[in-house]
Amino acid sequence: MLKKFIGLISLFAATNVVAQDCTTLPTNHQRFIDGKQSGEFRVAKDAGSAAITVNDSLTFEQYIVQTRSLIEARNKRAQLPCPLPHLALTQSAKVVDHIAPYQLKQANNDKAILLIHGLTDSPYIFSAVANDLYRQGFSVRTLLLPGHGTAADDLRHVSNRDWQQHVEYAIRRTAADFKQFAIMGFSTGAALTTIEVAKSRPENLGAIVLVAPATESHNKKSWLAQWVDWVPFMDWLDKDADLDFAKYESFPLAAAALVHNVMIKMMNTEVPSDLPILTILSDVDATIDSQATLKLLGRWAEKHRAEIALRLYANNQVAVSDSIAVTQVSQLAEVVDMSHVGLLLPPEHPYYGKQGHYRHCGSYFEDDDAYSACKAAKNITFGEHHAQNKATYKPLARVTFNPDYTGMMAQLFAFLDTHVK
């Protein structure tokens, strides 16, 4: 009997060890159910501020160390094994290694690119892009926006000023450290980039790349968030299990208010007319209203002297200003259409790819059975999770990879080679 008991304990321990891995958590259905109820990963460890203080005297190496320390102090999964490849690592990876800011340095300081992620995200969204840009000869830096990399609740404890200060710091620091550089921003990161560059453009900034820039929300009532956020007991729009180690799945009302403020500024921003711009977006983006983005690009193009290029994922013809150089991609292998979250990742990505460890079934997070069926389905449809797709395809996984990744990167390389030398 004692041997059987010890055997059961050993089996439980072994199972628990397997579960404690960033790649296995997203497939653990019981952890999903329990996590929604407990909010275990929704709230950070109580260990100080949700943001570090930045200033011009802070080297980027110091910024990386301090931000990593903050993640380790507040993120409950920071030390969880995370066996995914990372070009900047030589040892076994942990969660903190993938979500903390980092840099990939060339032997010279000729050219660099600064990568700024979006709301609820982390630098991991650039894991493939960063590696490819480094191999193309760029030094690469990533930024972690305050309130990210720890727990979704931390977005309730940072401000728009915190975000803008960090973006301003990263741009000024990179401008000082390299002869020429570019900035690539994703979603909210693209909007924050645009706002800062419009305010103060460094002379050695050669170009900006805006990926699904946060211009206007598809939810036309998003402006209410700044007022509803003051109502007691109405703190969250979504309470998910947050099993994705690299991106928050829960969404606090405070975050909606923050990004609404950013989008208002973005839509009223005028960029320097001699600054080359490449924009990448999907016309069926379910997070950002792409028509608002196209309208903004058209307004800029009226006065712009430098190149404005657009890589547009659209199954049907879309009206775009004649002053914009458009590359339209109408057919994507094995997906219905392109999503907001899939643009920057290749199909073979080990975590977010077609056969990756994480499948985005967020459309069903309120229905445990449907969520489980989506996660386990052998035959699944990938596409953006807009109303038409959700009604037509069941189960539907929000596509987290880009079948056109190689083509997109070829255009990105050509654009950067032209403007950042």
Automatic annotation (TrEMBL):
Keyword flag Signal: yes
Domain Serine aminopeptidase S33 intervals: 108-231
Signal peptide: 1-19
Annotated transmembrane regions: none
Keywords for the protein's UniProt record, in alphabetical order: Signal
Any one Pfam family match given in the protein's UniProt record, by short name: Hydrolase_4
Protein name: Serine aminopeptidase S33 domain-containing protein
Organism: Pseudoalteromonas luteoviolacea
